[in-house]
């Protein structure tokens, strides 16, 4: 019995042991399954960590190799700064990290920086800050930063890229200073050169002339080439001479050249000079226009008349490549400012193939358009007064208003030059005469000066004409105070012819 009982108990223990084994096996299976899940999670975490490490390495590599400065801040302090920014600010990393952002901003720009931070905190996606920062070595630089908000550990952080703009800013400030200085100089120049009748050699207060004056004054501070457009007789050479005298070249020569009067065969000799013996008739060395105008101004009137094959030679000199006098081998250079003038449309001449396009663009930098006299008739009274004063009439004439009105009614096809000649004839003959036709008498007695003495019935035609010619010459010599050169100009004859007439007619002059 006892033995049977032992077997039964042993069986129970075996069954219980089997259950425990089964339970352990089930636990192992569950543990293995759980371990597999855990291993998967560990593997995933490992991969994520590796990706983060790789990503962090990439971003750090990029940030630390950028030429622009990069910094990240949060909670009022810097968390990250790249080497480029440390180099820009010439500061150590530990010093920068512990530095409050405002501490490096110049006091004049702190308010701008604070406003930028406020805008970022209010949700602005990006803000640009430009201001002066103090570097670690004590020097100041201009920086420009682009600032963006970024979430960091539940807070709003700030990531910023910085660029040193000191060189560009200094150029910008210098340009502003130069511009301001030029404006002041122009105003000063205006105050010194503008008078109540006009500018420099020019007379007129009309709106059209004010536009011309403004352009002229703007050309004074620069040295670019100028083209003056205008009809014949509008005063293009006076404008050129005024620009020269107002410019920094005023102490150097002003050489005026009538391009239409130079034969093509003599073109190079006239402009570039020649050596003795270079050609038949070259008995002496000759200095050309370019060399004569060195450091000064070369005025090329009738620029549209220059032959196209000669334009390329002028272009070479204008571009600074120098010139060689005819018969010489030495290349010379000349520092000249070109002021050209024409009454033709140069752009149309380019289209017509008469002017080279490259030549046109080298001279046509600052165009000035002169108005015709009929476009500024309000200036006629001033011009009349100017000419009467300039011509030095012995008794200062005052032309009546009704005559001034008649002068203003005329179209003046010859422009200011025609007006000047008309006033010259008035001073000589007491008449206003346009192109030979007498329009009105300006003498107080309303008498002509056809004869100043009563006709004598027995006077021969020759004596009559001699008497008339003598009276005219005496009157003009009286008005010019005996100046024979002025008298000759008024009579439109040369001085030698006038001298012969004075001797023949026994005219006693001063």
* CATH architecture classification name of the domain at 196-259 and 291-371: 3-Layer(aba) Sandwich
Residue fraction in strands? 15-25%
Structural class: alpha/beta
List how many beta strands DSSP finds. 15
The N- and C-terminal alpha carbons lie at a distance of 183 Å
Q: According to CATH, what is the class of the domain at 196-259 and 291-371? A: Alpha Beta
Instruction: Give the spatial strand order of the biggest sheet.
Output: 2-1-5-4-3
Radius of gyration: 47 Å
CATH superfamily of the domain at 196-259 and 291-371: P-loop containing nucleotide triphosphate hydrolases
Find the CATH topology of the domain at 196-259 and 291-371.
Rossmann fold
Low-confidence stretches: 436-458
**Number of DSSP helices?**
18
Largest sheet: 5 strands, antiparallel
Shape category: elongated
Describe this protein with a few key phrases:
18 helices, single chain, 5-stranded parallel beta sheet, Rossmann fold, alpha/beta, Beta-Lactamase, 510 residues
How does this model look, in words?
This protein is of the alpha/beta class and 510 residues long. The protein is 48% helix and 16% strand. A 5-stranded antiparallel β-sheet has the order 2-1-5-4-3, with helices on both faces. A hairpin with a 2-residue loop joins strand 4 (140-152) and strand 5. Helix 13 (380-390) crosses helix 15 and helix 16 packs across helix 17 (484-491). The model is unreliable at 436-458 (pLDDT under 50).
């Amino acid at each position: 019995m006892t033995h049977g009982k032992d077997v039964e108990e042993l069986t129970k223990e075996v069954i219980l042991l089997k259950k425990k084994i089964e339970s352990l096996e089930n636990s192992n299976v569950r543990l293995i399954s759980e371990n597999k899940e855990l291993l998967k999670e560990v593997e995933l975490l490992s991969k994520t960590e590796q990706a983060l490490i790789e990503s962090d390495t990439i971003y750090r590599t990029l940030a630390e190799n950028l030429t622009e400065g990069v910094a990240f801040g949060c909670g009022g302090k810097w968390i990250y700064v790249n080497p480029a920014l440390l180099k820009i600010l010439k500061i150590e990393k530990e010093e920068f990290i512990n530095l409050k952002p405002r501490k490096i901003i110049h006091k004049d720009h702190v308010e701008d920086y604070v406003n930028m931070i406020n805008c970022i905190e209010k949700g602005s996606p990006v803000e640009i800050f430009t201001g002066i920062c103090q570097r670690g070595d004590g020097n100041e630089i201009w920086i420009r930063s682009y600032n963006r908000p970024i979430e960091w550990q539940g807070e709003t952080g700030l990531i910023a890229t910085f660029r040193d703009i000191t060189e560009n800013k200094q150029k910008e400030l210098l340009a502003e200073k130069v511009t301001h200085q030029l404006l002041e100089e122009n105003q000063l120049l205006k105050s010194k050169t503008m008078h109540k009748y006009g500018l420099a050699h020019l007379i007129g207060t009309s709106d059209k002339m004010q536009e011309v004056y403004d352009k002229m004054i703007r050309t004074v501070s620069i040295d670019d080439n100028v083209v003056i457009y205008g009809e014949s007789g509008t005063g293009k050479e006076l404008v050129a001479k005024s620009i020269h005298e107002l410019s920094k070249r005023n102490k150097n020569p002003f050489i005026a050249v009538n391009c239409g009067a130079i034969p093509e065969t003599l073109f190079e000799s006239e402009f570039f000079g020649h050596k003795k013996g270079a050609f038949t008739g070259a008995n002496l060395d000759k200095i050309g226009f370019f060399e004569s105008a060195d450091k000064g101004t070369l005025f090329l009137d009738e620029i549209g008349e220059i032959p196209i094959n000669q334009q390329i030679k002028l272009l070479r000199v204008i571009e600074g490549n120098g010139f060689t006098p005819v018969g010489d081998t030495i290349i010379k250079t000349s520092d000249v400012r070109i002021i050209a003038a024409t009454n033709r449309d140069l752009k149309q001449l380019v289209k017509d193939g008469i002017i080279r396009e490259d030549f046109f663009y080298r001279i046509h930098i600052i165009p000035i358009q002169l108005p015709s006299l009929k476009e500024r008739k309000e200036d006629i009274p001033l011009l009349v007064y100017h000419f009467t004063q300039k011509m030095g009439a012995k008794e200062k004439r005052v032309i009546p208003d009704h005559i001034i009105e008649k002068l203003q009614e005329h179209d003046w096809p010859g422009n200011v030059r025609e007006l000047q000649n008309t006033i010259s004839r008035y001073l000589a003959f007491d008449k206003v005469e346009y192109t030979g036709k007498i329009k009105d008498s300006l003498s107080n007695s309303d008498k002509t000066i056809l004869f100043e003495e009563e006709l004598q019935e027995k006077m021969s035609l020759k004596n009559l004409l001699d008497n008339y010619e003598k009276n005219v010459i005496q009157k003009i010599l009286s008005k010019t105070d005996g100046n024979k050169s002025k008298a000759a100009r008024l009579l439109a004859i040369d001085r030698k012819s006038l001298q012969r007439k004075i001797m023949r007619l026994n005219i006693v002059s001063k």
